[in-house]
Write a structure and sequence with these properties.
The chain is of the alpha+beta class. It has 2 domains: 75 residues, Orthogonal Bundle (434 Repressor (Amino-terminal Domain)); 126 residues, Umud Fragment, subunit A (Ribbon), CATH 2.10.109. It is built from 9 helices and 9 strands. A hairpin with a 2-residue loop joins strand 6 and strand 7. Helix 2 packs across helix 3. The longest helix is centred in the last third of the chain and has 30 residues.
């Protein structure tokens, strides 16, 4: 019996369900399900995905780890407990990069682990990007110049926090902000600190439990060009911010002397 079949048997038992009940929910026959649990046959990809979503345990864990050694709560806390990110390629062997639509941050937050949602996205291929999983996210706001609305940031999927490098830019998918593009500063206990390139905004921390995915900047695709006066406006804004900071520091010094 394989780890996968043992995990299926264990998870069904934990939920106190019959083979018939699970088979009905998966829309397959009880006999077919029983063969999966006995290890007599392996399920095809579409059934494997259904089983993963049914038990709320990632395909990675189902196939590689004896989940009976963990409590259900511990399983849910494991960093690998998510649907694996498949690397799709086009007819020329180039990675297919899924494009997250503009103004779809919350939609992505709800569907990032749903294979059907990801497969429904349009894709592009960039021959110079390889050796990794890439995805394109929309940039918005004025926190990370020169990227403006209409720009797409292509990110490479990061497996672990240890891969983060100070002063490098990343796309953070969080339960609080959805899609946010910021510059990583440092790791502090149960949080990380990030900042915007626009000095008008203060650095802030993101609690680790809020982070769902991290994508490292790989390249950008601009769909609108900057006009010269837009850069001038940005510089003026930064200049005003610096003046305000200097005034605040002067006031603090004067207050400290009194």
């Amino acid at each position: 019996m394989s780890i996968f079949s043992e995990n299926m048997r264990y998870l069904r038992g934990r939920l106190n369900l019959s083979q018939q009940k699970v088979a009905d929910d998966l829309l397959i026959t009880r006999g077919r399900y029983g063969k999966y649990e006995d290890g007599a046959t392996e399920p095809p990809q579409e059934i494997l995905i259904k089983i993963s979503k049914y038990y709320n345990v990632s395909i990675d864990l189902l196939l590689t780890i004896n989940v009976s050694k963990f409590s259900i709560d511990e399983i849910m806390e494991l960093p690998d407990n998510r649907i694996v990110l498949p690397i799709r390629v086009d007819s020329d062997g180039n990675n297919e990069i899924e494009i997250i639509p503009q103004k779809a941050s919350m939609g992505y937050l709800n569907g990032y682990s749903d294979p059907e949602y990801i497969e429904s996205l349009e894709t592009i291929s960039l021959p110079f990007l390889h050796h990794g999983k890439f995805r394109a996210f929309p940039a918005g706001g004025d926190s990370m110049p020169p990227y403006k609305d209409g720009t797409y940031i292509v990110g490479k999927y990061i497996e672990d926090l240890s891969e983060l490098k100070a002063d490098r830019t990343y796309i953070f998918i969080t339960s609080n902000d959805g899609i946010t593009y910021k510059r990583f500063q440092f790791h502090e206990a149960d949080s990380i600190w990030v900042k915007a390139d626009n000095s008008f905004y203060d650095p802030y921390k993101i609690p680790l439990p809020e982070i769902k995915e991290i994508w490292e900047f790989a390249c950008s695709i601009n769909t609108k060009e900057y006009e010269p006066d837009e850069f001038a406006e940005h510089y003026i804004q930064n200049f005003i911010t610096e003046i305000k900071t200097d005034i605040r520091q002067i006031k603090d010094k004067i207050g400290g002397r009194n």
